[in-house]
Amino acid sequence: MSIRVLLSVIAALLLLNGCATHGISVGCDHAEQDLEQAVKIYEDGDYAIAIVILHHALQNGLRSKRDQARAYKYIAFIHCVSNREKQCREAFKKAFEVDPGFTLQPAESGHPVWGPVFRGIVGSKAAK
């Protein structure tokens, strides 16, 4: 594990313990806000922090199935861009488990890294 990744994970753990960096509001009542912040952090390219916060949001009260599937989608994206195809596939499968109507936007499903993994899952579901 690189020093940058290790420091990012430590920073994420501090955030989840109540530090006010990145404007994260931590707690069971704020899981949806945590999801939105994790997406912003993901978009900024800080995947190590984003994935920790996404898991935290899932474990601590994302109420809607749609939000849960969205969290798993971003977890899948992070795993795929980190060359962890098995974990990527598993996260997409969890998205389908919580929301059978889960889908990606056309631009997302056409992505060269995670698109083939996602389409493989959709194809296997259709074959059943």
What does this protein structure show overall?
Helix 2 runs parallel beside helix 4 and helix 4 packs antiparallel against helix 5. The protein has 128 residues and is mainly α. It has seven helices and no strands. The N and C termini lie far apart (39 Å). The chain is 69% helix and 0% strand. The radius of gyration is 15 Å and the shape is globular.
User: What best-fitting shape do the alpha-carbon axes yield?
Assistant: globular
Residue fraction in strands: under 5%
Low-confidence stretches: 18-28
Radius of gyration: 15 Å
Number of strands: 0
| Oligomeric grouping of the chains | single chain
Helix content: 55-70%
* Content-based structural category: mainly alpha
Average pLDDT, rounded to a whole number, is 84
Please trace the helix and strand order, writing H or E for each element. Answer: HHHHHHH
> Main β-sheet, in a few words?
none
Distance from N terminus to C terminus (CA atoms, Å) equals 39 Å
Number of helices: 7
Write the layout of secondary structure elements.
Blueprint: H1 3-16, H2 31-43, H3 47-59, H4 65-81, H5 85-98, H6 106-109, H7 115-127
Helix pairs in contact: 1-3, 2-3, 2-4, 3-4, 4-5
In short:
This protein has 128 residues and is mainly α. The protein is 69% helix and 0% strand. It has helices at residues 3-16, 31-43, 47-59, 65-81, 85-98, 106-109, 115-127.
